[in-house]
Amino acid sequence: MRILLVEDDELLAQGMITRLKRMGYQPELCTTGKQALLAAEDSGFGLMILDLGLPDGFALDIIRQLRHSGVTMPILVLTAQSQLETKLTALNSGADDYLVKPIDVLELEARIRVLCRRQQQRTDDKLQLAGISLNLQNHHCQFQQQDVSLTRREFMLLKEFMLKPDRILSRQQLEELSYGWDGDNESNAIEVHIHNLRKKLSADVIKTVRGVGYMLVTQYGI
């Protein structure tokens, strides 16, 4: 899942990017509210982490503008401001959750999972379909009840396929998910990851739609 991180503190942002990648997410960084509004037009993001104290203004207006324009992705506010009034204003403006700095990364990870479950209308951190079981908390994967070891990018891709079964995902979507906007990836990197997933799972579970993209098929065995 791609996460839009809006944070102007370079040191904090880089630390969060490193941690989010270890969690299996693909973070993209914006440092101003203007950048964030433009980036949020990309429907490929599953979550926004938003610092309230941005250099071009208080970010509560960003939340209001996004909700007014119909953007529904979860927004997790991250701020040094602990006043109850600020927290209530952020939540009433359309934020989904609120964390006060300094943050504990384990709590951050838990909050992200809760918001994603709520958005995807799931009750736990497990995805199960087509004989595949994927635990989003500990990254444990099984296929037909046999353990499968995945790399970080294989996990990211498989999670995206399982969240959107029987739907075509374009090569561009998958590249941005794995490498970000400016990823310096090799031209055949996605094909390599797909090939490896097929070897570890089944050759039939991920279908190539020629000239369009790839899709995880839930009825491949029939």
Keywords:
24% strand; single chain; Rossmann fold; 8 helices; alpha/beta; 5-stranded parallel beta sheet; Arc Repressor Mutant, subunit A; 4-stranded antiparallel beta sheet; 14 strands; 222 residues; 2 domains
Description:
α6 crosses α8 (189-200). It contains eight helices and 14 strands. By secondary structure, the chain is α/β, with parallel strands linked by helices. The protein starts with a strand and ends in a 6-residue tail after the last strand. A hairpin with a 2-residue loop joins β10 (141-143) and β11 (146-148). The protein has a five-stranded parallel beta sheet with strand order 2-1-3-6-7, sandwiched between helices. The chain has a four-stranded antiparallel beta sheet with strand order 8-9-10-11, covered by helices on one side. Strands 12-14-13 form a three-stranded antiparallel beta sheet. The protein folds into two domains: 2-120, Response regulator (Rossmann fold), CATH 3.40.50; 126-216, Arc Repressor Mutant, subunit A (Orthogonal Bundle).
